[in-house]
Amino acid sequence: MACELWSQELDTYLDGELPEKEDQALRDHLRTCPACAADALDRMQMKRSIKNAGQRFRPDPAFRARIQRAAAVPARERRSWQWPMVFAFSAAMLALAAVLSTSYWQNRNREHQLVSELVDLHVATLASSNPVDVVSTDRHTVKPWFEGKLPFTFDLPELQGTPFTLIGGRTSYLNQSVGAELIFRIRQHNISVFIFQERALGNACADRTASDLNFHLDSWSQNGLCYFAVGDVNPDDLNKLAALLKP
Question: Three-class SS of residue 118?
């Protein structure tokens, strides 16, 4: 019965529109109910697919503005001898806009796909009955566990005196590349920090902030590694954790 009640609130939760108390109660339920967590993941992926389909052929904002300015010119100012030139210019601009718009949306789609994959990994981890392979709040236990499992090493910060707690870690994969996934907790929220080799992800490594439904992402690169912090926390919390992980 409880699952049926929470199921009715999943879409509102994923849109970030639940009141704070109900939002927290649903998060707690998702951590203990694999069925509802899987339902939430399915709904999130469906919402993302619909959103991507709606954005696939959107006109470039700059092109839209040029058309609006052209339409605002009074008719008396247009001369018949100008129309061939206008048509030629418009055709050239349309072709250029099509090329730029295609490139722009391809880049946007790749970036959105990356964010979506990382959010999916984060949600799948939280929905798992064994979210971490090494359970420890001691960075000196977690870091050595990855030795031999990753082709790189990384440092973990000292968290004493901060609002963050290290829960543990596990290996993860992105673009067929192995990396580390570290789970941190702040208050009742969990944050996944993914670490991959920069050369394995190429252009995917960039300093960025992004959002996907009810989740936020902060990413950066340093010392040949890509870092991605993902969680359903406010962006300020992600920034604070990122600052601790940066040298």
Answer: helix
pTM of the model: 0.62
DSSP letter for 73, please.
S
Mean pLDDT by 10 residues, the chain (247 residues): 70 75 75 73 66 57 65 54 53 50 47 81 83 91 93 92 95 90 92 92 78 84 92 91 89
Helix, strand, coil abundance in the chain, percent, nearest 5: 55, 20, 25
CA–centroid distance for 222 within its chain: 19
The 8 Å CB, 24+ separation contacts for 63-71 are 63/93, 63/97, 63/101, 66/93
Question: Rounded to an integer, what is the distance from CA 146 to the centroid of its chain?
Answer: 25
CB 215 within 8 A of CB 17: no
Residue with the two structure tokens 């639940």? 18
Domains of the chain by residue range: 2-55, 130-245
Sign, Cα dihedral of 83, 87, 93, 97: positive
- Grouping H, G, I as helix, E, B as strand and the rest as coil, residue 220 is strand
Determine the Cα–Cα distance for residues 215 and 119; give it in Å rounded to an integer. 7
Which positions ≥6 away from 160 have C-beta within 8 Å?
A: none
CATH numeric code, 130-245? 3.30.200.100
Cα within 13 Å of Cα(235), Cβ side: 9
Tokens encoding 236:
């300020």
